[in-house]
Amino acid sequence: MHQSIAFPVGKGGTNLPEDVALIAQMLNRVPTYKGGPSVYPGAQGSMTGDVINAIIHFQQAQSIFPVNGLITKESPTLFRLNQLANDAAAGDRHVQGMRQKVCDFALSYSRMNPVSDLICTTGIEFTRYFATQGKKNIPTPEALELQKIDKGNLPFRKGGEFLKKLYDDILLIPIDWSDQKPYKFHSKFTFKTHEITMLEGVFKRHMRVPLRNAANGGVHWCGMFACWIWKQAGIDIKWQVSREPLVSGKPLKPRTDKENMRHGDIAMIPEESHHYLIVSDPPSTKPMTALHTVDGNDMWQQILEHKPGAFDDGNKHTFGHVVGYYSLAEALGAL
What we know:
The chain is an alpha+beta fold. The chain has helices at about 15-30, 45-60, 75-110, 140-150, 160-170, 200-205, 220-230, 330-335; strands at about 10, 70, 130-135, 135-140, 185, 190-195, 235-240, 245, 250, 265-270, 275-280, 295, 305, 325. It is built from 8 helices and 14 strands. The strands form 5 sheets. It has a 5-stranded antiparallel β-sheet. Strands 7-8-9 form a 3-stranded antiparallel β-sheet. The longest helix has about 35 residues, at about 75-110.
C-alpha cells in the first residue's frame, strides 16, 4: 500500500505534525544497513529536526539525489520509503514466526542448562549456589565450600563439549584448539592467575577461553549464545569478538530505540558488555520494568531464564538498564 503526505516534510517543508509522524514511522521501519535511523526520530526531543537528519541519512544511504533532507509527494525518496515499507509489511508474519521460534529455542536450552560450573569434585551437581538478600548476591555455604575445595584442583565443567561446539558454530574466526601455548587468565572464582591452553579454557571449571592473552579477561560467551540461538532458528549469523556480529556477511549494528525492542531481540547492558535474549515483550518502558530473559554465560557460566519477580539481581534485567539491542526483524531483512 502506497502511503502519501499532504505537504512536504523535512528541510524547508510545511511539516504538518501528521505528515512528520508518518515519515518518522516509515523511516523507522527501514533497517539501519539500508539507511534507517539508529535512534527513533523524536527520541532526542526534536521530532522535526530528527526527521530531517534521518531523511538526509536515508537519501545518502540509498544514493537518492539531491540529498536535501526534504520529502515531497512525488519525490523518489517517498517512493523508495514505500517500497521498503511494503517489503517490511510482507515480512511481518515471517518475523513474528521467527520471534517465537527464537524464544522457544532459548527457553528450551535454559531448561536443559547444558553448561554449568556447578559440579564439585565428588560429581554432585547443584542447580544454583546463590541466595539473595536485597539486591546483593550472597554465596551460600555450599558455594563457599565448593570454591575452597576447587582452589588448585579444577575439574572439568559440565558441558565442555557443548561450549566448544558453540564456539565452533558461531565464531567468524575459528579457534585453534590444537594451540598448546599457555595463556594467562585471572579467575574471579579462584582469585588466581592461571596459565591455560585454549582447550583448557573451554573444558575446565572457572576458566574462560583466553583469546585476548590477558591476565584479567578471557572471552565471555553471552553474546555468542544469543546469536547462536538465532542461528539455530535459521539466521545466517557469525560472531566477531569485540565487534558487531555479521548477518549474511554484513555488520548488524546495535539499535538504541529500545522502546521498539521485542521478544526475540538481543539486548545489551553495560556490565562486562553482557548480552541476553528478550523472550517476552517488555510490558512497559519504565526504567525499573523487569524483563523476561534467557542469559547465556550467566552465574557459574550457565544458561538461565530470568522471570520478572522470580529472582532479584538488582537492575541487571530491567528496561532502564538496557543500552542497546540487536533487532531480529532487521537481521531477517538482511537475509
